[in-house]
Design goal:
This protein has 277 residues and is an alpha+beta fold. The protein has ten helices and nine strands. It folds into two domains: 165 residues, Jelly Rolls, CATH 2.60.120; 97 residues, Arc Repressor Mutant, subunit A, CATH 1.10.10.60.
């Protein structure tokens, strides 16, 4: 980031005003007050993260990136990352804006694109947020006004701009995944006492068929339910100031100690270390 140019800081200030936006449909500001890291975090869909305060380190199987305020982290396709979030020493806060790229946005971008796709540049990328000022500010203004169609169109324009930079994986429809469908069902109701028959009924599959297809995708129903609950818990730990026992209950755990143990086993991170309370 070019710190001699005032624009990136102005953009960050504009993005930070969304922290308390009640109309922020799907948009999330993640904050924390302690340095912490987590391993094997699943990012199930394309998304953008703009770092507003602090520093962020991200590593995949093939790449390692360091982010500072004004950087944009693009996840162009589902992947698994290790990450470390470090609060800003002056404010004592880590803050980032996470913008999921929903399927409606990606479908609109695919409809707009009528050229051969460029060679893809990989699953994640580090870019200056300042280079995408116009669509980001259009998205922000539309979101604050509750104009969700315009907000999605602004993000579709941003996806097109990213594809011109070589991130063409954004325009490729994901292969059908039963695991992703199961994860989405659980994520929508993480408190529910999910049983195999519930998933079978919702997906119209027999138990044997469900188990066979999940095994072919190298996973199981129990693992998917646990992963979806813990992923939702991580989001709550960042975006609320609820105590651990409340977060545990919100994602279907009756015991805060059991929740903390499972969370630490999954991510290598004590949930109390996120420090957003």
């Amino acid at each position: 980031m070019n710190t001699a140019t005032p624009f990136p800081h102005a953009l960050l200030a504009q993005m930070a005003t969304l922290v308390d936006c009640g109309r922020a449909e799907g948009f999330v500001c993640l904050s924390a007050r302690r340095e912490h890291g987590a391993r094997s975090v699943d990012i199930p869909r394309p998304q953008l993260t703009i770092l507003l305060q602090g520093r962020k380190q991200v590593r995949t199987a093939t790449r390692s990136l360091q982010f500072v305020p004004g950087d944009l982290l693009l996840v162009a396709q589902p992947c698994r990352i290790d990450m470390v979030n470090v609060p800003d020493p002056a404010s004592g806060t880590y803050l980032s804006a996470v913008i999921p790229l929903c399927e409606e946005v990606l479908v609109a971008a695919r409809a707009l694109w009528n050229e051969p796709l460029p060679a893809d540049t990989g699953d994640i990328a580090q870019l200056p947020a300042a280079e995408f000022e116009q669509p980001l500010l259009q998205w922000r203004a539309s979101l604050e006004q509750g104009r969700y169609i315009e907000a999605r169109l602004a993000l579709a324009a941003l996806v097109v701009a990213l594809c011109r930079r070589g991130h063409s994986a954004l325009l490729l429809p994901p292969p059908p995944s039963l695991a992703a469908r199961v994860r989405a069902l659980v994520a929508a109701q993480p408190q529910r006492d999910w049983r195999s028959r519930d998933i079978e009924d919702l997906l119209g599959l027999s138990g044997a068929t469900l188990r066979r297809h999940l095994a072919a995708e190298h996973t199981s129903l129990r693992r998917l339910v646990a992963d979806a609950r813990l992923a939702h818990a991580m989001e709550l730990l960042y975006t609320t100031r609820w105590p651990l026992k409340t977060v545990a209950a919100k994602v279907g755990y009756r015991s805060a100690s059991s929740f903390s143990r499972r969370f630490q086993q999954r991510y290598g991170l004590d949930p109390a270390d996120i420090g957003n309370a």
